[in-house]
Amino acid sequence: MAVAAEIERLDRVELLAMAEAGRDLAYWERVLAKTGGTVLSEVVGDATPADWSHYPPGDVYDPASHAQFFYHRHAAQGIEREQAREHGHFHIFMRPRGMPPGTQPLMLPELAIADAPAQPLDPAFPPVSQPNQGLGNDNFSHLVAVAIAPSGAAVRLFTTNRWVTGETWYAAEDVARMLDGFSIELARPSWPLNRWLGAVIRLYRPEIVALLAARDAMVMDWRRRHRGKVHVFEDRRLETTSSLAIDPAERARRIARALGKAA
Known about the structure:
Elements: H1 12-33, H2 39-44, E1 55-61, E2 67-72, E3 88-94, E4 141-148, E5 154-160, H3 162-165, H4 172-178, H5 191-203, H6 205-225, E6 240-245, H7 248-262
Antiparallel strand pairs: 1-2, 2-3, 3-4, 4-5, 5-6
């Protein structure tokens, strides 16, 4: 399945919204650069982050939008980082109270609602505390992950199988409808980081929608080929379900050219 959007075929309203997102993303990067910072330093500081630990501790959760995210990196001996050029990645979520009305988990014989802890399954890593997000708000959905280079630049978007985050599984179409609700309007731990992440989602919304569709196609194909052997959502052999390398600066240039031709 093709994932990269054909920008020239998008309508002008969508192009203008994406152009604004690109400007926002670049603005927050400039703001941070003035004091020698990046989105990476905003979330982990100057220290080398501990493998698997969530940053910031307890995650970032907005009680108004019910959006949530954390940053982490994997152990070197565990899941390989893409081409060894990624420092780590943000996992971005939506909790039920922020989902469009009527949204329900996808039900398969394996069940969509997670009943097993997320990776890593290792007693050396204690359970990660969750934000105080209220009753009836547990069955969260993973929207997308944003991989970050050591420079702080966003370099890849990807989706994952359920076991990776311990999420509840919603159909791609429902998760796509959650994207517009992602907003973190909190001063702490970092207003620039929160706004930057929102800009990434808006800038690449068409691609994220396509990644989610590719995610579902991959999971269903895997389920057909391994039927009866293992529950697809808990199969450790299937981790990344779709992926796309990104370059926000080039993206902004392409959008500007497309708007110029459409003028």
